[in-house]
Amino acid sequence: MDPVRNPYAPGAGQRPPELAGRDTELSAFDVVLERIARGRPERSLVLTGLRGVGKTVLLNQLRSAAISRGWGTGKIEARPDQSLRRPLSAALHMALRELRHPDQESTDAVLGTLKAFAQRQAPADAKVRDRWQPGIDVPASAGRADSGDMEIDLVELLSDVAGLAADVGKGVALFIDEMQDVQPDDVSAICAACHELSQQGSPLIVVGAGLPHLPAVLSASKSYSERLFRYLRIDRLDRAAADRALLAPAEREDVEFDTAALDALYAAADGYPYFVQAYGKVTWDVAASSPITAADVAMAAPAAEAELAVGFFGSRYDRATPAEREYMHAMAELGGPTGAAVGTSDVAVALGRKPASLSPARDSLIKKGLVYSAERGQIAFTVPHFGRYLLSHATD
């Protein structure tokens, strides 16, 4: 098979050639956009799921849907050690440019507020060279979105941005990837802003994506967040969707799969979109001709697994310290190849340690996005099949 024509695309956030199994989520978002366009109230949206299920791909697709309707959009990727002021400022600046409000004076007024919000990141006595300049050519406004209190400032800023969007009959959508990494004060500010804007019926929504414990992060910040957001769990593809993700791109290249090959690919990938693309890509390169057979899949599997071991699993494992690796290996032994959630007390017993002495390793793994607290007293891997990977690699 010609590798140049290989249609499969495993990659972080890279859109697959066929976005299969997400029709329900895309249709639901179209309803959200249409309701807001008609002045109807709607909740902001939160996508949750393990790594490799396509949250970022779906987030980007939702953004494209908003752009196609003439909305202003901006996207950021949260980091645990970064305040949201700067990335939010850049994202909202882009959203305002996309809105193309015809009245420059009104636009400049909001841009002035945005600039004041952005510059409030630096201390009042900071030297000019230490002040971040957001690239906005209007003077910073005074007295709005510049108090230094993130919650107050974000409510004021987003209210002004939403007002500008309402003037032109459009909306603004702010997309936040890795939302579980947003700092606590910023999470509280986002929830408060969404609450205020929903009460005002303003045409601005936040669409977040993050790991399975993101709802708990939001709920810990504001109790009403359970009613503030609509939560969508993004999971594995069912068999029909996984087959479609493989067959549709192949058909465009006049290539077929036999049924046994599809059976073998679904068993290997377990329905996870990233794995579907990874196994599909290597199988295509190995196959001599169409139709692709189960023998081709069997021949390709070791190479696909070796690539995943380095790029998908190994890159994450390498970020862990020896103490953290010991903790994860204990989790794998307890949870088995499926990577089932395990009790933190059980991990302590398995390692012969007191639970309190393992808290630093566990907390660091959570911050690195390698594990998450599935529920109180439970811990699980954020990466599918990670337990299987660890069981096949001796502790080092």
Would you kindly provide a written description of the structure presented here, covering whatever features stand out?
With 396 residues, the chain is an alpha/beta fold. The protein folds into 3 domains: 211 residues, P-loop containing nucleotide triphosphate hydrolases (Rossmann fold), CATH 3.40.50.300; 78 residues, Helicase, Ruva Protein, domain 3, CATH 1.10.8; 71 residues, Orthogonal Bundle (Arc Repressor Mutant, subunit A). The protein has 16 helices and 8 strands. Strands 2-3-4-1-5 form a 5-stranded parallel sheet, with helices on both faces. A 3-stranded antiparallel sheet has the order 6-8-7. α3 packs parallel to α5. The radius of gyration is 23 Å and the shape is globular. The two termini are 39 Å apart. The mean pLDDT is 92.
What structural keywords apply?
396 residues, Helicase, Ruva Protein, domain 3, Arc Repressor Mutant, subunit A, 3 domains, 5-stranded parallel beta sheet
CATH architecture of the largest domain: 3-Layer(aba) Sandwich
Termini separation: 39 Å
Q: What's the CATH topology label of the largest domain?
A: Rossmann fold
How many helices does DSSP assign? 16
The level 1 CATH classification of the largest domain is Alpha Beta
**CATH homologous superfamily label of the largest domain:** P-loop containing nucleotide triphosphate hydrolases
User: Which structural class matches the secondary elements?
Assistant: alpha/beta
Query: What would the principal axes of the Cα set say about the shape?
Result: globular
DSSP strand count: 8
- In total, how many domains does the architecture comprise? 3
How are the strands ordered across the major sheet?
A: 2-3-4-1-5
* Uncertain spans: none
Average pLDDT across residues? 92
